[in-house]
Amino acid sequence: MNTTLKEKITAWEPAAVWSEAGDGLFTVPADRLHALAARLKEEGFDFLRSLTGMDWGEEGLGTVYHLEATRTGANVVLRTLTADRENPALPTVCDLWKAAEFNEREAFDYFGIRFVNHPDMRRLYLRDDWVGHPLRKDYDPALNPLRMSNEVAEDTAESFELTHDGSFIRHRKPIFEEDEYVINIGPQHPATHGVLRFRVALEGEIIRKLDVHCGYIHRGIEKMCESLTYPQTLALTDRLDYLGASQNRHALCMCIERAMGVEVPERVQYIRTIMDELQRIDSHLLFFSCLCMDMGALTAFFYGFRDREKVLDILEQTTGGRLIQTYNTIGGVQADIHPDFVRKVKELIAYLRPTLREYHEVFTGNVIARQRLEGTGVLSREDAVSFGATGGTGRASGWACDVRKRHPYAMYGKVDFEEVLFTEGDCFARYMVRMREIEQSMRIIEQLIDNIPQGEFRLKMKPVIRIPEGSYYTAVEGSRGEFGVFIESRGDKSPYRMKFRSTGLPLVSCMETVARGAKIADLIAIGGTVDYVVPDIDR
């Protein structure tokens, strides 16, 4: 963080204490947090990159906020906490950033922190009858035996108001009124792209409200990481957004390497960048296929899957995996590229260019596809930033949010490519961003594939890795947007806390805003073009 910004924050809030450990952050008293957050928002910090719930043991429970100013690219990290473990309460910031609404519900679910004046303090992932909060350090798993009974949907949203004497007034308001017609979509509906559930209030065919239910595939990856060594945590990243496996693992390796002060060889940087872009092509081809299938264009679905197989063949030859890559490792990659890798990548690009034109003839120009996608599910730029809806969804709304441009890493600062932007913010713009990004990914690969330098593909690392005390955050541009890794280290061989900034949670949190007023049939097209992956949301 630059010195001027530090001085400004200290002047605005004298009680804020700066810590140099790790990336550096300000600790702000809970009663002063909202005022400082509002001031930072006024100063241009309009993007809440990440909000992480924390248990600091005897020190208390709290949250860490990563903020960015989209105009200048400046970043700041705030930390706040409460020592009251019995009734922990912090001020909400969801009136400043819409992204906080679901993130604060996540922190409530896992840590039991109530956010004062948050409009909907329900659990986000776990059942309402779940006992305790699993990411607390003192959590007892024995409190929750396996329940085979069906969960009853909670139909009231709770909010908490703090009174002058320190007690809470609990407010309840119904999510759906008694006379509303509510239908259930998911969690076993093929067009929700995984086990995600929407409860939708309809007036005729028009969507009036949409309530998202997550957690049907929850596997507790962040909790598992706390008992694993750093090399062991790598295996779990591929299973988050499995269509961005290479990029997820790249982010975690990069975070650990940066914390340790390790500089990986240039050969590794080239290979990682090429693999990330092949993964992006793979993901976008699947996006095209599934969207087409959701809308009834089965021929295009087969075309997309046929061509995705060609990408997976190349990945498998080097990494041994098709979906789960397990390729990046701390200090490099698991194995050198296959002898045929360069030739096959060049053949793939030569094949894909004319094939993409065929896609556009079959689907993009189709009158039915255009009428169903154009003008449907509009997300404004302001809302995209406020929700933190990055990736193709943000760029379709005119927000230049590409991490490869904002915070270049690997070889992205040395290659020439365009950040694909549209301003319409509708389903068709979201579709076109991804189709154009396939072309840009090929352009990036072409600049690197013939120039991979000689050298080591992996540095020799100690068998037990420890990173210095402090908190660290690193992000990459995943297939669906910013995928971030936050690590708090106490200098041990395992992370004290590891949080993955899901690309999908902001995308799902903006679904009600995007879908309200659309027809129920349009919800399928909207979900397909927003392009979330459920295990990445549930973590």
Automatic annotation (TrEMBL):
Reaction(s) catalysed by this chain, per the record, are: a quinone + NADH + 5 H(+)(in) = a quinol + NAD(+) + 4 H(+)(out)
* Keywords (A to Z) from UniProt: Cell membrane, Membrane, Multifunctional enzyme, NAD, Quinone, Translocase, Transport
Give a GO cellular-component term: plasma membrane
Primary location = membrane
* A Pfam match: Complex1_49kDa
Per UniProt, what is the membrane topology?
Answer: Peripheral membrane protein
User: Where does the UniProt annotation locate this protein?
Assistant: Cell inner membrane; Cell membrane
Where the record annotates domain NADH:ubiquinone oxidoreductase 30kDa subunit, the positions are: 27-140
Known role: NDH-1 shuttles electrons from NADH, via FMN and iron-sulfur (Fe-S) centers, to quinones in the respiratory chain. The immediate electron acceptor for the enzyme in this species is believed to be a menaquinone. Couples the redox reaction to proton translocation (for every two electrons transferred, four hydrogen ions are translocated across the cytoplasmic membrane), and thus conserves the redox energy in a proton gradient.
Q: What is this protein called?
A: NADH-quinone oxidoreductase subunit D
Source organism of the structure: Alistipes dispar
